[in-house]
Design brief:
Strand order of the largest sheet of chain B: 2-5-1-6
Largest sheet of chain A: none
Domain YCII-related (chain B): 1-97
Number of helices of chain A: 21
CATH architecture of chain B: 2-Layer Sandwich
Mean pLDDT of chain A: 89
InterPro entries (chain B): Dimeric_a/b-barrel, YCII
Oligomer: heterodimer
Largest interface: A-B, 14 and 12 residues
Number of helices of chain B: 2
Low-confidence stretches of chain B: none
CATH superfamily of chain B: Dimeric alpha+beta barrel
Structural class of chain A: mainly alpha
Family (chain B): Belongs to the YciI family.
CATH topology of chain B: Alpha-Beta Plaits
Pfam families (chain B): YCII
Low-confidence stretches of chain A: 88-100
Helix content of chain B: 25-40%
Strand content of chain A: under 5%
Protein name (chain B): YCII-related domain-containing protein
């Protein structure tokens, strides 16, 4: 990659959301903002190799995009009443924003508005805030490009027609709305981390990286928010183990089998710093902060045998109070198995059957406990079920190997 | 912006029938705060008649919701600055009516 290409990529990362956000503010229309921003970057790709990178690339792009938008409006020359009305919603009196006044925040909150379906929020955020192209987003979520394009177009129409406001929510709504934004980032991250679909890469790094980049952006915009810090820490501590998590042959490597020396020490250190910062705040943690703390305990152990399981179970007890979902109970049982043995843990997991019978991790966890208890036949049946339900290629490979390692015909405890 | 706010009831799982006093209080507030444009509860779906005069002669049939589980039980029209305001009111309206609420903008 030439220096200019590298500069364009970097500027695209740094400035895309700012350009789209400021144009949306000015023209009151996400569609115009998106198109003009894309044209401005295309112009940069054409011109910068010959003209050189301008001294202030962000300002250059905003000016160019503004001109493109005005050109389009002149061309169309039909700013009908509907658009003027939309403009009024967008150009309302300035709200008191205090320290977090940044155009990009308005953009993020609009794209993650609760009146949009989750899959729509995810797509819109990746396009408008992340600057991914429609084909890139379509590929990442294994949908047809035309379908993804329509999803984004429909979302932009709904925002305009339904009067979804372009602003940072009022203070009393902020915690709920932030958790909606974080949920979107978590979906992006998880889809990258546990990519689904046959013949797909087990980890889609571009999605985990994008989720982290967006989480860093929100963290920079809202440095005082504990859950933002918590989600960023959780992602960093998970991402740190990414390369250790899949073997050279494409098989999932469980936490206990991972080569801990290959974890990314810088990401681990950054994640630990964030977790310590939140602990020092003395403010009761939310769900993401507790999840980050659990991951901090895991990543603090140089050897799996040094893992402080009692601390992990205590954190899961805290998490269950915040999020009493069967999936949290399942993960808690995995820690309980280390502390109190597989028999106690199996009993806890069996109670989750009604809720989790269709979830591969439920069967994989049972299979593992049954294996430890010497119940090979039952374990094999549970592995079969887990393999049938798993969607991630590396996970399927791992589960198949574990199943095939069971000793055939060993005695059944019943 | 102007929104059509539909109250949706469910024949299998109908909302409670004692909501009128609470709805009246809520309406008074909508009027006082300047959101109220129109409101009306609807008679049973069996009272509806559909007219189709697209063909050679007009055909009258029963209402389209007679067979369906969910149906429109009443409507409001609200004037609100944006969807956030409308959704906040609708969230309260759902509690007040003990029914689902659809918020849909006018063109």
């Amino acid at each position: 990659m030439s220096d200019v290409e590298a500069a364009i990529t970097r500027v695209h990362h740094e400035e895309w959301a700012r350009v789209v956000a400021s144009l949306t503010r000015r023209f009151g229309d996400l569609d115009i903002a998106e198109e003009a921003a894309a044209e401005a970057f295309a112009t940069a790709v054409e011109r910068w190799p010959a003209d050189g990178v301008p001294p202030n690339p962000g300002a250059w792009l905003t000016t160019t995009a503004n001109r493109k938008a005005i050109d389009r409006l002149r061309r169309e020359n039909k700013r009908d009443d509907k658009q003027k009305e939309a403009q009024m919603v967008y150009d309302g009196p300035p709200e008191p924003l205090g320290a977090i006044d940044d155009e990009r925040l308005r953009l993020i909150f609009t794209c993650c508005h609760p009146a949009l379906a989750m899959e729509t929020r995810v797509a819109l955020t990746l396009r408008m805030v992340g600057g991914l192209t429609v084909p890139e987003i379509a590929r990442a979520f294994l949908v047809q490009e035309t379908a993804m394009g329509q999803r984004i177009t429909r979302a932009k129409s709904k925002i305009k027609a339904a009067g979804i406001p372009y602003r940072v929510p009022a203070t009393e709504d902020l915690p709920r709305r932030i958790s909606g934004v974080l949920a979107v980032l978590f979906v992006v991250f998880n889809e990258g981390y546990l990519a689904t679909g046959p013949d797909t890469d087990p980890v889609r790094h571009e999605l985990t990286a994008e989720a982290i980049r967006l989480a860093r952006l929100i963290r920079a915009l809202m440095p005082g928010d504990g859950e933002v810090a918590g989600l960023l820490a959780l992602m960093l501590l998970t991402e740190a183990r990414r390369t250790a998590r899949v073997s050279a042959t494409g098989e999932l490597v469980s936490l206990e089998e991972q080569d801990r020396g290959s974890w990314d020490a810088a990401l681990v250190a950054e994640g630990h710093r964030l977790v310590r910062e939140r602990l020092a705040s003395g403010i009761a943690p939310g769900r993401y902060q507790v999840l980050a703390a659990i991951n901090a305990v895991h990543t603090s152990a140089r050897d799996v045998r040094d893992t402080d399981w009692s601390q992990i179970v205590a954190l899961y007890n805290q998490l269950i109070r915040l999020d009493p979902s069967p999936i949290v109970a399942l993960n808690r049982a995995i820690a309980v198995a280390e502390l109190d043995g597989p028999e106690v843990a199996l009993a806890a997991v069996d109670r989750l059957e009604d809720a989790l019978a269709g979830y591969h991790a439920y069967h994989a966890t049972r299979a593992e406990f049954l294996r430890r208890l010497g119940q090979s036949l039952n374990s094999r049946a549970a592995y079969d079920k887990a393999i049938e339900l798993a969607g991630n290629t590396a996970e399927t490979a791992y589960l198949t190997r574990r199943r095939d390692q069971l000793v055939a015909g060993s005695s059944e405890a019943g | 912006m102007r929104y059509l706010v539909s109250v949706i009831d469910d024949k299998d799982n109908p909302g409670s029938t004692d909501r009128q006093p609470a709805i009246s209080t809520f309406n008074d507030r909508l009027i006082a705060e300047g959101y109220w444009v129109f409101a009306g509860g609807l008679a049973d779906t069996t009272a509806a008649t559909v007219i189709d005069n697209r063909g050679e002669q007009a055909v009258f049939t029963d209402g389209p919701f007679v067979e369906s589980k969910e149906y429109l039980a009443g409507v409001w029209v609200w004037e609100a600055p944006d969807l956030d305001v409308a959704l906040k009111l609708a969230t309260e309206a759902s509690k007040v009516c003990d029914r689902k609420i659809e918020v849909r903008p006018f063109q």
